[in-house]
Automatic annotation (TrEMBL):
<dbReference type="InterPro" id="IPR052543">
    <property type="entry name" value="HTH_Metal-responsive_Reg"/>
</dbReference>
<dbReference type="Pfam" id="PF12840">
    <property type="entry name" value="HTH_20"/>
</dbReference>
<dbReference type="GO" id="GO:0032791">
    <property type="term" value="F:lead ion binding"/>
</dbReference>
<dbReference type="GO" id="GO:0010288">
    <property type="term" value="P:response to lead ion"/>
</dbReference>
<dbReference type="GO" id="GO:0003677">
    <property type="term" value="F:DNA binding"/>
</dbReference>
<dbReference type="GO" id="GO:0003700">
    <property type="term" value="F:DNA-binding transcription factor activity"/>
</dbReference>
<dbReference type="InterPro" id="IPR011991">
    <property type="entry name" value="ArsR-like_HTH"/>
</dbReference>
<dbReference type="InterPro" id="IPR036390">
    <property type="entry name" value="WH_DNA-bd_sf"/>
</dbReference>
<dbReference type="GO" id="GO:0097063">
    <property type="term" value="F:cadmium ion sensor activity"/>
</dbReference>
<protein>
    <recommendedName>
        <fullName>HTH arsR-type domain-containing protein</fullName>
    </recommendedName>
</protein>
<dbReference type="InterPro" id="IPR001845">
    <property type="entry name" value="HTH_ArsR_DNA-bd_dom"/>
</dbReference>
<feature type="domain" description="HTH arsR-type">
    <location>
        <begin position="1"/>
        <end position="93"/>
    </location>
</feature>
<dbReference type="GO" id="GO:0046686">
    <property type="term" value="P:response to cadmium ion"/>
</dbReference>
<dbReference type="InterPro" id="IPR036388">
    <property type="entry name" value="WH-like_DNA-bd_sf"/>
</dbReference>
Amino acid sequence: MGQHNISSVAHLIAEPVRSVMLITLADGSTMSAGALAAAAGVTAQTASSHLAKLLDGGLLSVESKGRHRYYRLAGAHVSHVLESLASVGPVTPAWRNTPNRSAQALRFARCCYDHLAGKISIAVTQNMLTRGFIVEASERRYALTTSGHAWLQQLGIDIGELPAGQTELARQCLDWTERQFHVAGPLGARLMDAFLAWGWVRKSSTTRSVAVTPLGWDGFRTHFGIVRETVEPD
């Protein structure tokens, strides 16, 4: 990648209004210009200018429905860049121990584009590693083992064919709050889809945070050995 491209993308992300818009969309959602303007606390005209720059820079895509336009991240790679940037520099003890409930909720569980992130996701990943269902591979990837594939089938999760353009099943995504890797890529997305379909987790309507339901705690304990008290914030 050329230096000019790096500086251009960095400049787009660094502007505070644009960074808020990008982070707001980091859960893979689609939002109108008005909703993004409200999230960033700017006027519609200001939001329109910033959105145009993000589109030109390849960080967003847009879909028109009637008179309305809806924006989303250009792909999982943009969310990965945002998480990677957030992981640069230390997570201070003050932030880790903050009594702020919103911050605690994000650290516990959140959407990272199409997969789960936070303490609960680290616990899921570690359990799968310990049981030999995935193993660390080269180039920050996980490989699904034969026993892991059989276990997923037992759970009713069909891996099937990789999505178009995908060459890897499971990627190691550095969790910016926990400083450990969690499962991303198609495997991470299908796990998240399953957790939502089973009613184990539910997304927040206003933030990237994810809540685990009582049914979910039973499922995570039974199938992943995750005990609520070991991961849930106080």
